[in-house]
Every structure is written in structure tokens, then in C-alpha cells.
């Protein structure tokens, strides 16, 4: 059997416990770590020759990251219950094991010090907190924190109980609820660490403390004299009461009615700090079990962590194409998108030839980067190096030597075809050409490039430097080399890619558009505008549908609609949003750009809904208003059905692409894990029932595709199908 | 069922609920003691015939803790056979205590029972007793907890009352209270509060600001805007529950909300026989009583619902009521009640209310019951409906009828 924790007893009787999980570059909590720690605790308790212990790491990469998220999959949703036990009781037993183990460590009766050489996150920091004395290497880059909240979890090995007892409830809540990291110096200031010393002295410092404190094996909270930092943890302490009244409200506002983990953290802290530690950790584990039993955490971890990392590591990259990193990119068009793409490329060390029709426009595109770097307060030489990689020009011959083209010019086929041909005249058709179009089908645009297998869609989101997603669009003739090149480029600029097949609006624009259009449909029916907007935000979308349309521009929506109508001819089916957008267009209400759209934008004041809105587009408010739940259902299911159609039509090949694209492309409620995770969780049969009901009431736009009916009949789910396909 | 009659009603004047308030030096047990003694001394009853004393108190901790009603009974030198119980129905505690006392008489549990209440807000601040409702995360999320000022502003927004509307209501409350005091309309019920050497420390309501006008009110900043819009942002919680509202219009401030004050009140209730034993004339009978619950986030729309319920219990309509008395917790609460039941302003709170005179939480319900009874007698009218909005969406109401 391999050991995960090496033990070494020195002449002073101090047992050095070195965590060094075999086969891993970073320590994570494995069953072996737990077994070895249990054995060490037993030795501390029973062996008189052992006076105390020092816990450290054998990895240069750091002390320990937390639990292995990928390995936790089995826990989520709760497994089957063993004989004579409820499912929840069995789950509690499972999650309480580690919590109890760390409690055993801190109550073993002998002093235990942690010598922390590098990062300690999540469960890693919880190991540290269970030690009686904590010394951290003096390196400001070391991060200590409990970031579980970021993936819908929370610290379940005593973190919610020890951190408040060390640093006070209010600061602890900040770290627990925001998942914020702290530096060694911050940890020292908060009493989370007792010493910060040079890295090569951590073990001797820890040992010296153990030697000097033979009676140091008692945590402050186990001493009779313990006082909670910040005042007594009792309802009759007004400061305690106020802290929770305020903390509850702020957390409720931030988490909405959607997220499980923030509520669970607050409850675990509120209930736990009022009782002794042995009871407190049981309370923590009960809330942890509740969070884990709900599909939410599993869905979030799968999409926000597992699928995201896999996508970034090339899950969708053709395996047999050699790495094709981009050295010099030809950026066609120096507008908002082109300038942003130039910036992220230059930041990634890629040379950029930034081409526009006038030198002034091209220079302005470069200035975009200069302005944003200035705001970041980057060191002057570093900023200059980035800027020096951007070469503004109007001459196509300057594109010579580029190994990737990205086009972000005006959205008409003629202009795009024109620049494509001029570029080809310089570079030839063997270079990979990526179009950043957000509306025009790639297969058609590819006709202007002599080798359409080298033509691909590389769809960025605005503002480019902030938005994490890039949607790669595969045209009918796009080849593997183009996909590999595009994905290698996305990896270089450190964004998250999804790969979709060609379709009008591709995946993200097409599905996000339905959210906006359903909002407009509701508006056209005379629904209270504020209800539409508030429900949109409350269901987890970043902004209401009317507000987002104002940002995009109502005139643009009108023009895209007209273009679609012209393109589709007889196949075009007018939707209920069309009348609303046409009316607004006719009134010259364009949105934020001319300070009048669905909202009014007073000079220097906050925007508010246009008071005449319902009267203008719906002839007044409807007498019968839908409930908030009805509005939510329509805004949600209109998106879900479009996502399902994209899957049915082959625009999407994997649910992972669908979920990542939705969350990172248009901000689809992240707590669901994305639309496909959400449909799986709701159950496809239930989704079909709801869609049929909505279609009957509101029209064919809600009609479920046959794929969903077939899946429902089989009892299938998107991720089960994907797993089968992968196997 | 036995009829329950009101034989006497007393209240202390209300002192400013601050360190410089006249009643700040008076302990809450003293306030409760003095109103109990006044009831006994004014009626000449043998307190051995008082079976129970029910006192409302909303922050029953510290020197208001440990069943202040029983302790007040002992401290007032009542017969030691008289029981005492402290109850809490938030702002309606005083009226609820009276209703409970009446119920004890009606069921035959008591011959005489006293209902009333006490609150020294200057000495035991609001919220001193903690609250699972607001503090416990599981409960706060579930109930969309927000302080009642947010609910009051939400009522104003939802039902269309502007800052001008609420300020105008407040100004009229001050005018009516000043006139009532000037004409001595409260004199039958006021028990001046005395100190330990027997000197009167307060004989009139200290919180009033006669001469308040729209201009002075207009200068006050909204009290709940910061906690609503900034930290911790309660407006967003209100909008989760009321998503049809775009933005809350923060209109309430100290000048159009009930004042924080100290005070106590007591109402003597008994059956016909016990009144006859002491030759007491019944002043009114309790015709009906009710409490309700409604949506807790907006919190303060209960008066409409409890009024309808108590009218139905009494077999009456609102047109059978001569005078309405609704606690002026916030101006919008009264304006919404008038709007919902279509009640003219000259039939409600005719002598002003808590905006002018203050709202000693545990006592107010009993105070306004006494106030409206005095007014029925003064004007020769017959019926009154008394009600209050109550925390967490409740409402409590009582209909009395002169005999």
C-alpha cells in the first residue's frame, strides 16, 4: 500500500507528517490521505514517545488543494440509501467522516502545528485550521481560502465553524460567501496564522512551537475562557443580530432565490457559532449534505469546473492535427470587436496586423488597447511591449506572414466577401480564415475563400477583453485543420471555446435571442414591463430582456429581423415580438444609443422604464396579468426549447458545448449548470409536458422537437446520451 | 356567551423614547404599576375580583422581561391572587391583551380582567429581544424579511401615495392631536406619571410637534432609502416578492411615521354582574374581535383584512361604524386602509395618532381603544372599530359599542 502521508519522528518526539499524495502534482484529499491521517492521530493519542506533530506538504506546488471535485461526482444528488437508513442520513455519514477526522486531530490531546509551504485551498485550508498553530511561508503569492462557493458548494470539513471562531463572524462570512483568497499576511492579521516566516524555516518554527507548548493541544474554542472574536454569538447581542439581519439581506439579494450554497453557509454559521464545536460540525455537515443532495452543486461543478477545464484543454480539438499556435494574426476591421480581439491577441504574445479602411480608424483600434491597459495600471514597459505587437495599417500587403486571419468588418455579405478576397490575394487560401460574424451563416461566407475547408467562424462576445467565451462555428466544408487552429488560438488567448455547427445565429445568438423575443412578446400582450424585467433578473439572467435589447439597439433588432425575413422568404414566420420592435423602430426609439428605447435615460440620472411603454406597444396594461412564475416559465422554456432544437438539428454536438455556451456566452442562470443540465434535472418528460402546455397556450414557438419526445419516451437525458456516445 | 364591558380605560402620557425623554428615568415596571393603580383607585374595586391582568410588551427582555404583568400586579399591591400574563402581538399587543381580557370575561374565566400594555422604548430599545424572523437565515430568506419601513414605502409605491400625500396626512395628524389636547379631549384617560418622590414628571404627550407644516416635513430625508437601495439593499428583496414594482419610492421619514415613545395603558373589562357589584356603569361593550395574518413582506396591509373580518364577525358593514381608529404606524398604512375601505378622513383618527403622539409598541392598542371610547362619548356616537397593522403581516381589530 502506498502512503499519502509520510511520518518521521525526531529526537524531540515531534512527529513530522508530510502529505505527499502519490501520482499527483498537487495534494488533494484522497481516501489514503484520510486513512493515513487517522493512523497518525491514533499514534498521537496512544504513543507516549510522540509529544506532538507538525503537518506539512511534500509538494513544491503547495500545501494542499481541497477535495478532488471530479472524484466527488458520486456524492451529488445522493446515492441509494443502505438498509435501515434514510438517504440523507447515509449522506450525512459520508460527508461527516472528514469533518470528524479533523475534529479528532484537534482533540488528540497533543499540540499539532501546520507548516504551510504554499497554497492551501478548500479542504486544504480546513486541514490547516484544525491544527493548533499555523505557520505560513512568507510568500505573498501563496493563496489561502475557501473558494467552494464558486462551484455551488461550501466548506464541509469545519471551515464554516473554525474560520468565524478564529477571525470573527463578519470577516469569516466575507471569505466564505465570496470565496475570496487571503495572503499569508492577511491570515496573520486575522489570527488565521500565528507566524509568517521564510519558506525554509516553516518546519523548524512549527517544531519549536510544539516543543515549547506541550500543553498547546487545545483549540481556543475548546477552552473555557473562549470568547468569540467580535462579541458573543447570541441573539441577545445586538451586534450579532444586526450582522445576520444585514448579512441575510445582502446574501439574499446576491443569491436571489436560486442558489443553495450561500443560504446553507449562512445557516451553518448562524446555528453553528451558538453551540460547542462538536455540535457545530454536525450542523455544518447536515447543511453540507443538504447542498450535496441537491443536483445544483453537481450541475455547477460539471459545467463551471469540469466541462470548462476540459473545453480549455481541447476536448473538442481534432486529435490528429499537430499543434498550430498562432504567431501573427491578420485582424480585419478595427472597430469595437476588432480592437478588442487585437488587444487579447497582443496580450497573449501574438503579433497583430490591425487593418481598417483608413489609417485613423486603424490607429483608433490600437488606442483601444492603450486606454484599457492604462486603466489596469500595468507597468509601462509591459504595456508598451503589448502595444508594440499591434501594427495598424490600411494596406493588405502588410498582412503578409500572418498565419491566421480574423475578420470583424461590417455585417454585410458584399463587404465581407470583398475583404476576404483581398486578403486571399496576399496570403493565399491555405491560411486559416476566421470570421467573427454574429449573424451570417459561415457556409455562405466561406464561398469567398478558395479553400472553404480553411474557413471557420470565430465568434467573440463584446467586450472581447471581458467576455470569457469564444464560439467556434464549423461551416459545411470547414476542415479539421481549421478547427484545430481556431481552438489553439482560443487557448492562447485563454478563453473558453465551444464548437458548434453552422446555423442562422449559430447557437448563442439564436438561443439568447429567444429570451429577448419572449420578453417582447410578453410586453406586446400588455404585461407590466417591470414584471418582465424583474423576473428576468430574478431567474438568474444578468439583465432583463428589455434592458438588453436597449443595449443592443432596437434599430439593429429591427434590421436583423428584416434581413432574416428577406433571407427566409416564404419560410419566415413572424413572431409576436415583431410588432413591438417595428412600433419602437417607427417611433425612432433606438435604445440607449439615442437615450430612448424601452427605457428612458435621463441626463445624469438613472434609467427607468418608459412610462408610455405599455400604452404604446400594447394599448395599455392587460387586465389579467400573468404571475411571476408564469413569466419566468415563458422566459426560461422559450430558451430551453431553442437549445433543444439546436441539439436536435445538430448545431450542437454535445450538451457540454450547450451548457458552457449558454452560461459564458449569454449569462444563462449559472446555478443551473446550463440549459441542458437544467432540462436533465427537471426531467425530459416534464420538460415536454411543460412545452406542450406552453405551445398550446402561446404558440408553436414552444413546441418541443421530436428529439425531446423520443428522449422522454426512453427516459433518457442529454448527459446520459453524451456519456453513451463517449463510451 | 357572557357580554364583556369596558368599565375604565387609562393611559400614561407618552414620553419621547430617548435619553432626554421625560419618562426615560421611569422604569417600565413603574409605568405598568401606575396604570394598574389608577384603574383600581378610579373604580374603587377590590382587586381580589380581578382574575387576570394581560399586558402587551413587544421587547420583553431585560427590565421588561420575566412576565412584567404579574410583577406589575405585585408591585401595584393588587391582591396576590390576581394572575398576570405578558403577551406579544407586536404593535397590536395592547389591543390583543384587551381582546384576551374580554375573552376571559366572555367565557366566564374572569369576572374582571385587565388588558393593557407597557413599553419603555427609551430603556429597552426595539429589537432587544432578537428575532428568528430577521436573524435566522433560513427564516429571513423564506419570509423575504425586510424592515417595516420598506413595507410602508412599498405600500406607498404600490398604491400610489406620493411624498406629498404622506406628508399631508402627517401634518393633519399633528393638527388634530394639538386640537384634541387643547380642548382637553384626552383628560378622562390620562394618568400623569409620577417619580419616586411622588412628583409628576409628565402629564401630556411629549412627542407632539404642533405647527408642523409641509415645508418642515419636506425637509426631512427619507429614512429607509439607504437600507433599501444601498446597504444591505432591502428593496431588491421587496422586488423579489413584488416583481411588478420597478422601483420603491421612499417617502417615509421620522415626521410621517409613528414616534418612538415610552408609555403604558390599562383597560378594565368585566361582566355585567361584577360591574353592578361596584355600581360601575359600563361604558361600552366589546362587540367583536379578530386577528388575521397576511403577506408578511409588505407586512402592513393587514388592517384592511382584519377590519373586514371583524365587521363580518359582528354582522356589520363599515357603514355601521361611526369612528375608525387605526394606529398611525406609517402614513401610507392609514392612507391605504382609507383607500381600500373607502373611509373618509373625517371618520378616522379624528384626534390624531401615533405620528403626532407616538407608538409605545406594547401599549398603543389599549391606548387608542381608550381614545376612541372617549371620543364616542364626547360626540354622542355609538360604534367604533379599532385596529392596528402588525409585524409579519398580521392585523388585530376590535369593535366596541356604547351601551
Detailed description of the structure:
Chain A is α/β, with parallel strands linked by helices and 727 residues long. Chain A folds into 3 domains: 5-293, 2-enoyl-CoA Hydratase, Chain A, domain 1 (Alpha-Beta Complex), CATH 3.90.226.10; 328-502, NAD(P)-binding Rossmann-like Domain (Rossmann fold, 3-Layer(aba) Sandwich); 509-726, N-(1-d-carboxylethyl)-l-norvaline Dehydrogenase, domain 2 (Orthogonal Bundle). The longest helix of chain A has 21 residues, at 628-648. In chain B, strands 1, 2, 3, 4, 5, 8, 9, 10, 11 and 12 form a 10-stranded mixed sheet that branches. Chain B has a two-stranded antiparallel sheet with strand order 6-7. Chain B has a domain at 5-124 and 258-283: Peroxisomal Thiolase, Chain A, domain 1 (3-Layer(aba) Sandwich), CATH 3.40.47.10. Chain B is 37% helix and 19% strand. Chain B is globular. With 403 residues, chain B is of the alpha+beta class. Classes of the chains: A alpha/beta (727), B alpha+beta (403). The interface between A and B is medium-sized, with 34 and 29 residues.
Amino acid at each position: 500500500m502506498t502512503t499519502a502521508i509520510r511520518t518521521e519522528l525526531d529526537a524531540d518526539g515531534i512527529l513530522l507528517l508530510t502529505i505527499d499524495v502519490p501520482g499527483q502534482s498537487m495534494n488533494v484529499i484522497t481516501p489514503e490521505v484520510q486513512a493515513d491521517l487517522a493512523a497518525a492521530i491514533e499514534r498521537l493519542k496512544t504513543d507516549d514517545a510522540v509529544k506532538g506533530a507538525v503537518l506539512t506538504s511534500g509538494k513544491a506546488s503547495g500545501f494542499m488543494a481541497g477535495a478532488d471535485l471530479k472524484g466527488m461526482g458520486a456524492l451529488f444528488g445522493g446515492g441509494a440509501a443502505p438498509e435501515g437508513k434514510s438517504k440523507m442520513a447515509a449522506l450525512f455519514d459520508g460527508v461527516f467522516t472528514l469533518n470528524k477526522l479533523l475534529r479528532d486531530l484537534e482533540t488528540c490531546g497533543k499540540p499539532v502545528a501546520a507548516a504551510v509551504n504554499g497554497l492551501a485551498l478548500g479542504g486544504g485550508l480546513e486541514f490547516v485550521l484544525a491544527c493548533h498553530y499555523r505557520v505560513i511561508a512568507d510568500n505573498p503569492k501563496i493563496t489561502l481560502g475557501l473558494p467552494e462557493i464558486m462551484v455551488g458548494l461550501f466548506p464541509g470539513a469545519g471551515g464554516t465553524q473554525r474560520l468565524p471562531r478564529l477571525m470573527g463572524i463578519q470577516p469569516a462570512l466575507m471569505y466564505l460567501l465570496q470565496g475570496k483568497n487571503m495572503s499569508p499576511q492577511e491570515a496573520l492579521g486575522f489570527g488565521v496564522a500565528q507566524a509568517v516566516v521564510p519558506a525554509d524555516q516553516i518546519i523548524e518554527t512549527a517544531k519549536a512551537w510544539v516543543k515549547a507548548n506541550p500543553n498547546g493541544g487545545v483549540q481556543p474554542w475548546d477552552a473555557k475562557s473562549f470568547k468569540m472574536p467580535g462579541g458573543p454569538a447570541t441573539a441577545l447581542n445586538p451586534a450579532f443580530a444586526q450582522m445576520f439581519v444585514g448579512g441575510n439581506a445582502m446574501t439574499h439579494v446576491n443569491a436571489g432565490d436560486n442558489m443553495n450554497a450561500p443560504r446553507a453557509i449562512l445557516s451553518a454559521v448562524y446555528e453553528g457559532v451558538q453551540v460547542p464545536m462538536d455540535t457545530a460540525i454536525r450542523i455544518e455537515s447536515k447543511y453540507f449534505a443538504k447542498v450535496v443532495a441537491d443536483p445544483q452543486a453537481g450541475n455547477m461543478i460539471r459545467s463551471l469546473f469540469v466541462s470548462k477545464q476540459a473545453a480549455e484543454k481541447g476536448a473538442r480539438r481534432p486529435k490528429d492535427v499537430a499543434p498550430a499556435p498562432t504567431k501573427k494574426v491578420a485582424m480585419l476591421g478595427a472597430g469595437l470587436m476588432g480592437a478588442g480581439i487585437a488587444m487579447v491577441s497582443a496580450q497573449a504574445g501574438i503579433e497583430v496586423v490591425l487593418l481598417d479602411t483608413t489609417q485613423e480608424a486603424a490607429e483608433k483600434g490600437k488606442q483601444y488597447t492603450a486606454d484599457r491597459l492604462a486603466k489596469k495600471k500595468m507597468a509601462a514597459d509591459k504595456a508598451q511591449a503589448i502595444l508594440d505587437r499591434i501594427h495598424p495599417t490600411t494596406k493588405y500587403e502588410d498582412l503578409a506572414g500572418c498565419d491566421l486571419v480574423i475578420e470583424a468588418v461590417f455585417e454585410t455579405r458584399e463587404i465581407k466577401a470583398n475583404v476576404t478576397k483581398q486578403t486571399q490575394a496576399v496570403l493565399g487560401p491555405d491560411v486559416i480564415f476566421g470570421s467573427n460574424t454574429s449573424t451570417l451563416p459561415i457556409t455562405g461566407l466561406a464561398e469567398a475563400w478558395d479553400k472553404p475547408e480553411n474557413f471557420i467562424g470565430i465568434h467573440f462576445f463584446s467586450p472581447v477583453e471581458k467576455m470569457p467565451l469564444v464560439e467556434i462555428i464549423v461551416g459545411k466544408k470547414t476542415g479539421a485543420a481549421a478547427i484545430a487552429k481556431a481552438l489553439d488560438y482560443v487557448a492562447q488567448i485563454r478563453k473558453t471555446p465551444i464548437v458548434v455547427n453552422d446555423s442562422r445565429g449559430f447557437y448563442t445568438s439564436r438561443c439568447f435571442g429567444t429570451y429577448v423575443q419572449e420578453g417582447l412578446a410578453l410586453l406586446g400582450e400588455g404585461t407590466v414591463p417591470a414584471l418582465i424585467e424583474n423576473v428576468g433578473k430574478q431567474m438568474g439572467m444578468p439583465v432583463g430582456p428589455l434592458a438588453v435589447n436597449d443595449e443592443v439597439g432596437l434599430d439593429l433588432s429591427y434590421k436583423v429581423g428584416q434581413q432574416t425575413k428577406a433571407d427566409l422568404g416564404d419560410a419566415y414566420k413572424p413572431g409576436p415580438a415583431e410588432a413591438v420592435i417595428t412600433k419602437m423602430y417607427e417611433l425612432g426609439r433606438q435604445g440607449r444609443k439615442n437615450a430612448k428605447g424601452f427605457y428612458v435615460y435621463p441626463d445624469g440620472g438613472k434609467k427607468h422604464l418608459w412610462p408610455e411603454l405599455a400604452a404604446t406597444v400594447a394599448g395599455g396594461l392587460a387586465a389579467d396579468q400573468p404571475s411571476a412564475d408564469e413569466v419566468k416559465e415563458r422566459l426560461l422554456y422559450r430558451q430551453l426549447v431553442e437549445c433543444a432544437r439546436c441539439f436536435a438539428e445538430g448545431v450542437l454536438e454535445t450538451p457540454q458545448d450547450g451548457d458552457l455556451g449558454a452560461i459564458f456566452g449569454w449569462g444563462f442562470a449559472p446555478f443551473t449548470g446550463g440549459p441542458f443540465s437544467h432540462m436533465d434535472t427537471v426531467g425530459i418528460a416534464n420538460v415536454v409536458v411543460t412545452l406542450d402546455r406552453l405551445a398550446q397556450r402561446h404558440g408553436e414557438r414552444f413546441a418541443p422537437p421530436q428529439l425531446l419526445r423520443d428522449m422522454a419516451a426512453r427516459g433518457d437525458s442529454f448527459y446520459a446520451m453524451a456519456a453513451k456516445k463517449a463510451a | 356567551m357572557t357580554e364583556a364591558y369596558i368599565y375604565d380605560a387609562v393611559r400614561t402620557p407618552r414620553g419621547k423614547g430617548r435619553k432626554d425623554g421625560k419618562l426615560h428615568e421611569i422604569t417600565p415596571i413603574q409605568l405598568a404599576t401606575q396604570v394598574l393603580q389608577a384603574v383600581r383607585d378610579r373604580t374603587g374595586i377590590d382587586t381580589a375580583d380581578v382574575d387576570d391582568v394581560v399586558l402587551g410588551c413587544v421587547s420583553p427582555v431585560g427590565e421588561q422581561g420575566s412576565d412584567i404583568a404579574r410583577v406589575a400586579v405585585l408591585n401595584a399591591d393588587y391582591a396576590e391572587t390576581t394572575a398576570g400574563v405578558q403577551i406579544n402581538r407586536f404593535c397590536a399587543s395592547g389591543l390583543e391583551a384587551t381582546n384576551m381580557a374580554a375573552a376571559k370575561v366572555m367565557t366566564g374565566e374572569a369576572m374582571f380582567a385587565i388588558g393593557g400594555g407597557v413599553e419603555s422604548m427609551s430603556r429597552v430599545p426595539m429589537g432587544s429581544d432578537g428575532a428568528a424572523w430577521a436573524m435566522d437565515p433560513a427564516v429571513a430568506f423564506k419570509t423575504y424579511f425586510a424592515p417595516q419601513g420598506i413595507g410602508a414605502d412599498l405600500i406607498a409605491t404600490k398604491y400610489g401615495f406620493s411624498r406629498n400625500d404622506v406628508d399631508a396626512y402627517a401634518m393633519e395628524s399633528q393638527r388634530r392631536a394639538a386640537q384634541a389636547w387643547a380642548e382637553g379631549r384626552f383628560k378622562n384617560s390620562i394618568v400623569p406619571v409620577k417619580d419616586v418622590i411622588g412628583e409628576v414628571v409628565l402629564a401630556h404627550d411629549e412627542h407632539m410637534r404642533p405647527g408642523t407644516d409641509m415645508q418642515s416635513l419636506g425637509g426631512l430625508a427619507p429614512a429607509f432609502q439607504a437600507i433599501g437601495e444601498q446597504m444591505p439593499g432591502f428593496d431588491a428583496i421587496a422586488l423579489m416578492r413584488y416583481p411588478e414594482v420597478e422601483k420603491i419610492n421612499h417617502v417615509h421619514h421620522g415626521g410621517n411615521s409613528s414616534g418612538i415613545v415610552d408609555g403604558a395603558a390599562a383597560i378594565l373589562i368585566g361582566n355585567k354582574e361584577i360591574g353592578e357589584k361596584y355600581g360601575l356603569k359600563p361604558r361600552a361593550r366589546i362587540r367583536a374581535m379578530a386577528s388575521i395574518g397576511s403577506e408578511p413582506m409588505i407586512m402592513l396591509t393587514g388592517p384592511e383584512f382584519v377590519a373586514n373580518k371583524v365587521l363580518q364577525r359582528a354582522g356589520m358593514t363599515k357603514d355601521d361604524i361611526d369612528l375608525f381608529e387605526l394606529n398611525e404606524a406609517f402614513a401610507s398604512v392609514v392612507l391605504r386602509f382609507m383607500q381600500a375601505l373607502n373611509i373618509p378622513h373625517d371618520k378616522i383618527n379624528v384626534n390624531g395618532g401615533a405620528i403626532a403622539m407616538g407608538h409605545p409598541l406594547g401599549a398603543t392598542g389599549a391606548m387608542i381603544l381608550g381614545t376612541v371610547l372617549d371620543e364616542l362619548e364626547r360626540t354622542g356616537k355609538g360604534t367604533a372599530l379599532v385596529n392596528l397593522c402588525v409585524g409579519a403581516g398580521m392585523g388585530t381589530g376590535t369593535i366596541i359599542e356604547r351601551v
